[in-house]
Amino acid sequence: xxxxxxxxxxxxxxxxxxxxxxxxxxxxxxxxxxxxxxxxxxxxxxxxxxxxxxxxxxxxxxxxxxxxxxxxxxxxxxxxxxxxxxxxxxxxxxxxxxxxxxxxxxxxxxxxxxxxxxxxxxxxxxxxxxxxxxxxxxxxxxxxxxxxxxxxxxxxxxxxxxxxxxxxxxxxxxxxxxxxxxxxxxxxxxxxxxxxxxxxxxxxxxxxxxxxxxxxxxxxxxxxxxxxxxxxxxxxxxxxxxxxxxxxxxxxxxxxxxxxxxxxxxxxxxxxxxxxxxxxxxxxxxxxxxxxxxxxxxxxxxxxxxxxxxxxxxxxxxxxxxxxxxxxxxxxxxxxxxxxxxxxxxxxxxxxxxxxxxxxxxxxxxxxxxxxxxxxxxxxxxxxxxxxxxxxxxxxxxxxxxxxxxxxxxxxxxxxxxxxxxxxxxxxxxxxxxxxxxxxxxxxxxxxxxxxxxxxxxxxxxxxxxxxxxxxxxxxxxxxxxxxxx
Length: 486
Description:
This protein is α+β, with helices and mostly antiparallel strands. The chain contains 17 helices and 22 strands.
């Protein structure tokens, strides 16, 4: 999971990109990077850490240009500690290309051999983004025959790329002296939204593409639509917009975890309001709770702030139980789910949340969380509730049990770390020391997200073990686990 943004404007874009990355900070906190294009010259700055600490005034002054892109990184491939793994990546031929990427490629072993032995290209990191860039550069080079760079040449290169790349990817690239290219994988697993506005100064069309719609709206862009699965769009330096479907068989399977946890609630992706989807998750979860917990056993319903709050409100409403805020959140600690390492996660829970004893003492508390992944956070929260004086602790998840690795851009590669893998719900409850545990069903989660939309299905592999791209084998999952452990 990463956050990406690209802008074609009539004025310098450095401040717009910086502001956009602040809005996308929840999607990645390991590193960040901005690239701008001044005629044919790229200006690039990237650094470890969060956006507000990564850019100095002198850095921003050097980021000159009316076209640019930005990235916040949550490491799923490559090291989180090295700035060399930060995006964007650059190749000098053809033309000069800078590229950023959100997602995860699942055929990197084959790509590594192809790039070295066939394409004669060298990658300097373990990042799958650098591989993606080099595959695109190779295919673009093959399309060029001393003619002007027309949009169809770029689109043909993307079409060739789709045939070579497997996994999830939304990408934005700058082509030196020409413009901005963006494309999305044929399954549309990761989001990408297009926005447009008219410059008040020049009356020219300006364009933005970003991971979430809230970025467009906060920069006064009108949301036009999502980039379609398999589609590529190109915006030249004059602001002219071109698009083409570059996949032979596109299908939309957006990642369910975007709606459960990853995206901000004020975003709309694939035509679906994240906030409304989370409200519906609470409605469906309440129906299941009625079957699992006796009426009258629960005194209060409490969310784990912030992403579970809409679901918790609906649970309380549907059950007719008082809704209370028992956990206070320290907003200066990063999201615990995306922190690497169990010990760091465990320590950060206590730094991030504080249980107010006045809300817990002598009460039977029903806690609502968006999901339970490794269980580290959940166990700490249950203990905090007991330490604050709770009589009984019931725990519910707005998402189904996470039983399988996620290989499309979320850091869940190791089955042994997933608390629900090979355990019954009663066994999970016992391990977490919970009085009663209730999960959302897979079917109810699906209905909560897509019931009022034309989308036919979701990418739900971490819940079901079914991988939508059809190219993820058990051998690959075993290899990913071994790589992760090493």
